[in-house]
Amino acid sequence: MSDWIGVALFIVVGIVFGAGGMLTSFLIHPRSKNKFKLETYECGLPTEGATWVRFKTQYFTYALMFVIFDVEVIYLYPWAVSFVDLGLAGLIKMFLFIFILVLGLWYAWKEGALEWK
Q1: Which of 34, 67, 86, 116 is 20 to 30 A (C-alpha) from 105?
Q2: Is 20:31 a contact under the CB 8 Å cutoff?
Q3: What is the pTM of this model?
Q4: What residues have CB less than 8 Å from 63, skipping those under 6 apart?
Q5: Check: CATH 1.20.58 for 4-110?
Q6: CB burial class (10 A; 0-12, 13-18, 19+) of residue 7?
Q7: Any idea where the domains of the chain sit in the sequence?
């Protein structure tokens, strides 16, 4: 039971810090609402045209692909550090992991997810 005291303390401190930050933000936020506070701020100049702009979904697709392959690097680093200890089995597993990721990239490329339209 004493092993879980540290975990419980960590969770409680996390909740207190999160709730404390939200409470502090609520207590000190500016309360005056007027026309100028609700306008979109653009370099100190009045906005011209529509302030709500639609973004292409390709931005989301590229961001998602970046996150996927960025996470791949996170898994490659510990493998590279302990490469000698893992031996041939670790090498085969990592090649399988990279093959699955390359297969996913090939599929996305084949489906046209990486083409800018």
Answers
A1: 86
A2: no
A3: 0.51
A4: none
A5: yes
A6: exposed
A7: 4-110
Structure tokens, 93: 């597993």
How far from the centroid of its chain's Cα atoms is residue 112's Cα?
24
Which two three-digit tokens encode residue 34? 């007027």
Nearest Cα residue to 102 out of 59, 65, 74: 65
Q: For residue 11, count CB atoms less than 10 angstroms from its CB and return exposed for 0-12, middle for 13-18, buried for 19 or more.
A: exposed
Nearest Cα residue to 68 out of 97, 31, 37: 97
